[in-house]
Amino acid sequence: MPERDGYIPGVPCALDATQPDPEAAVAFYSGLFGWECEDVMPPESEAKYFVARLRGRDVAAVGSIEVAPRAATWNTYFWVDSADETASKVREAGGSVLMEPFDIGPDAGRKAVCTDREGAAFCVWQAKLNRGAQLVNEPGALVFNGLNTRDMEAAKSFYGPVFGWRTLSLDSGAEMWALPGYGDYLERHNPDLRKQLAEMGGPGYEDVVASIDPIADDQPDSPAHWSVTFAVDDPNATAAKATELGGTVIAPPFEAPWSRPGYYRVHLTIINDPQGATFSASKFVPENKVHAAASPTRRRRCAWVGVVRPPLLADAIAEQKASDVRGTTTARGSRSLCARRSPAQGIDGPFGEVPQSSPGVAIFDLGVGLFLVSLPEEPSGRAGEAGVGEQPQRRVDPLGQ
C-alpha cells in the first residue's frame, strides 16, 4: 500500500529535514531520489520550506533551520489525535516538550516537538488538511524509522504510555516497536498482509511501526535519536550517487541484522548529506524459503552428500512434469535440479526430471533442501554404482565454480 491518505495514532506519518542551506539540500536529494520540490512559503518569507514529491504525491520536505542548534537533521513525525494531549503524555512519561503545540497555517495541522527520556527528538502531528506523506515504501520515499537508544528499558517505559507501543522480538535477536491493531488497519487495503508476512516468517510483523537500534559502546559521542530510511532500488548505486553529489557514505551497503535469509533480506547503506544530515537507504528483498533451495547461487554454503544412480530416484520423479524443472546449468554443462528434504528417504518430490541415461546424480545438502546435479558423463571410479554417502573421484560443483 504505497499511497496513503492519513494514518492512525502512533504511526510515523511524515518527515522533514531542517538544513542551514535548504536550496543546496534540495539539489542533493533531487539528484539522489528524483524528487520534484516546491517552496510553499510566501515569496516575502526569509524561511524556506520545500515539499518534495514523487509522481505528484508528497514524500518529504526540506526546510530552513529557524532555531539553534543549526545542525542539519531529519525529523520524524508521529500521527496523533491531539498534539496537546500527547504533549501532556510526554511530560508524564518523563520526556520534554521543546516546542509547545502550535498551528501550521490556518488549516494544515497542529505540531509539537518533543524528546524522550534520553533526549531523542521527534514531532507529533495532529492533521487537518495536511495528512502526512502521501507515498511510502517506494524508491525515493520513506520506508522505515528507527529509534537509536542506549536505554531500552527507559524507552519502553516512555513510548508505551505515549503511543501505546509494545516490543516485538525477532528470531535474529533484534526488537521492533509494534502498535497493536496496526495490522488490522493495513489489512483494510491489503487483505492478504498477514498471509504474506507469515510466508516470509514474520508473524506479528504486521503491527511493526519502527525499529529499535541499540547504540554501540564504541560510539560514545552518538546521542539517542530517531533515524529515517528511504527505499531504493540499489543501495550500492545510491551510495555511489550520494558520493558524486557531495555526500559521505558512513556505512557502505551491508545486510541488516534483522534479515531472515530464506525469507527476506534487507540491504542498506548509511549516508550523510553534504550538510551533515544522516539517513539510510535500503532495499527489501523477499525470498521464498523453498525457492532458496532451488537457487543455490544465493547460498554460499553446501555440504557434499554423494552420488546416487537415477533408477533410485525413478519413483520419486515419476509424477513430476517437465515444466516443474527448476535450477541452473553449471559451468560443466550439467543440469541442476532441486528436491526437498525427506527425513525417511532423503528426497521428496524433486522439481524436475533426472535423465535415466545419466550415469549418476550428485547430491549436495544446502540445509534447507537437497541440491541435485545430473552428471553429464561417467565420473572416474564407480560413481555410476555408488550409493548416497560414497564420494566419487570427480567432484561436481553445484555453484558452477
Give a description of the structure.
The model is unreliable at 290-401 (pLDDT under 50). The chain is α+β, with helices and mostly antiparallel strands and 401 residues long. The radius of gyration is 27 Å and the shape is globular. It has helices at 22-33, 83-92, 152-163, 182-187, 193-199, 235-244, 289-294, 314-317; strands at 12-19, 36-39, 49-54, 57-64, 73-79, 96-104, 109-115, 121-127, 142-149, 166-169, 175-178, 208-214, 225-231, 248-255, 264-272, 278-286, 303-308, 335-340, 348-351, 361-365, 370-374. The protein has an eight-stranded mixed β-sheet, with helices on one face. An eight-stranded mixed β-sheet has the order 10-11-12-9-13-16-15-14, with helices on one face. The chain is built from eight helices and 21 strands. A hairpin with a 4-residue loop joins strand 6 and strand 7 (109-115). The chain folds into two domains: 12-286, Roll (2,3-Dihydroxybiphenyl 1,2-Dioxygenase, domain 1), CATH 3.10.180; 289-385, no CATH class.
